[in-house]
Write a structure and sequence with these properties.
The protein has 299 residues and is an alpha+beta fold. It is built from 10 helices and 14 strands.
């Protein structure tokens, strides 16, 4: 049986689902126009476009785990000796944004398909959850190891949250733009005081069953615009007694750069510091890396 709240076809949309008999939950997403908008802010070479597209898919999947309005999830790569010296993406209320700073000359020396280590060197991935309701911040840092950012995020949940997690990402470039899709699966923490929590039982049969099915998803299924997200879930788990489906938010490019926003930030600096920031015309120029725009701020 599949319970569906609303259709989740097309691009830039999240789908939530749970498998109650397997103590598992999942998310599926497919990015299209929003991804093109973010990638077009800079002239990224192909390897950088791919790594940013993967990071944005992962960001949307992880950000969708937030429950409270106004909460934010940020993914940031901290690198040492890599071609990429900064990668940052965040999610808030269905808005996603991302940016990569890299050394183009060194990248060209690596060829068309550089490894994760070649791109980041001795890098670390920091995942931060800022909760609006409580004002609390949770952050975990894990090494950027493995073959993908998705694998590093799986390690984060295993090491920092003790939650078994599977993340799959598919990428596809088309003449009209880039499409990227992904799926997240997690073993729900069914815990009571004095009772072992399921998600710390590393060999629990329910999770093994779900993860095996999850690993069978194909990249083509994640990115195919003709295949709605419900069908992706149904193909994987159609033999389950029950699948509960809930439509998630429509995703948008979420750069929050406005003159008012920057005026507010700059007003917190000391008057002498603000004077040092001004150009010959008495304006402060602020460059937003996320959307590649410059703002002239007159205080």
């Amino acid at each position: 049986m599949i319970e569906q709240a609303q259709p989740s076809t097309g691009f830039d949309q999240l789908l939530h689902f749970t498998l109650p008999d397997r103590d598992a939950r999942g998310r599926v997403v497919r990015l299209g126009p929003v991804l093109d908008t973010i990638l077009s802010a800079h002239s990224y070479p192909a390897p950088i476009r791919c790594i940013l597209a993967e990071a944005l898919v992962v960001t949307a999947l992880l950000g969708s785990l937030l429950k409270d309005q106004g909460s934010q999830m940020t993914v940031q790569a901290q690198t040492k000796g890599g071609v990429i010296d900064l990668l940052v993406c965040d999610y808030r209320d269905g808005e996603v944004r991302g940016y990569v700073r890299h050394d183009r000359a060194r990248l060209d020396e690596l060829g068309p398909t550089p490894s994760l280590f070649a791109l980041f060197g001795e890098g670390y991935l920091a995942i931060t959850f800022d909760l609006a309701a409580t004002g609390q911040r949770y952050q975990g840092v894990v090494p950027l190891e493995g073959n993908s950012l998705a694998e590093a995020c799986e390690s984060y949940f295993f090491q920092s949250e003790q939650v078994r997690t599977l993340i799959r990402v598919g990428l596809h470039n088309t003449p009209s733009g880039c499409v990227a899709g992904g799926m997240l699966l997690q073993h729900l923490p069914e815990g009571e005081e004095g009772r072992e929590r399921l998600h710390v039982q590393l060999d629990h049969p329910e999770w093994e069953h779900v993860s095996i099915l999850g690993r069978s998803v194909k990249d083509e299924e994640l990115v195919d615009p003709a295949l709605d997200l419900e069908t992706v879930v149904w193909r994987l788990f159609h033999e389950e007694p029950e699948i509960r489906i809930e439509g998630g938010p429509i995703l948008t490019r979420g750069c929050r750069c406005t003159i008012t926003h920057y005026q507010d930030i700059l007003s917190r600096f000391a008057p002498a510091d603000r004077e040092d920031m001004k150009n010959d015309d008495g304006l402060i120029i602020v460059d937003c890396a996320f959307c590649s725009r410059e703002f002239e701020i007159d205080l």
